[in-house]
Design goal:
This protein has 120 residues and is mainly alpha-helical. The protein has a single domain (2-119), classed as Response regulator (Rossmann fold). It has helices spanning 2-9, 29-36, 66-71, 96-119; strands spanning 61-63, 81-83. A two-stranded parallel sheet has the order 1-2.
């Protein structure tokens, strides 16, 4: 969700790539639904590992969960690193409706953080 939101909110001035320290291997269906509810499609997104970016010069790395914060030291070519801890919506419990509410809440929290950063 963060990749899709940043690419949208960045207005073409940013190229965001999302990666995980322990990628699931798929994009969660409820993440796709949550994004579609704000008019954004992440249907073409794919689960990626941090290892894909180890040798890449990066302007900014944003970690969005605590376990990734420690893993991002593996990205030595990052000019700036920020930590924005969000709940992992994939860990949400309850029925599908309750889980979707968690995805939507986290989506909105990520969106607000990105907007604040871009407007700073």
């Amino acid at each position: 969700m963060a990749e899709g939101l940043w690419n949208h909110l960045g207005g073409g001035e940013w190229i965001a790539q999302s990666a995980g320290s322990n990628p699931a291997g798929y994009v969660h269906d409820l993440a796709k639904v949550a994004m579609s509810r704000v008019g954004l499609s992440i249907d073409n997104a794919r689960s990626k590992s941090l290892t894909e970016f180890v040798d890449t010069n990066l302007d900014l790395v944003v970690t969005v969960c605590d376990n990734a914060k420690d893993s991002c030291s593996a990205l030595p070519h990052a000019a700036e690193v920020l930590h924005w801890p969000f709940d992992d919506p994939a860990d949400a419990t309850g029925d599908e409706s309750e889980q979707l509410q968690c995805f939507e809440r986290v989506r909105d929290e990520i969106s607000a953080s990105i907007r604040e950063y871009l407007n700073a």
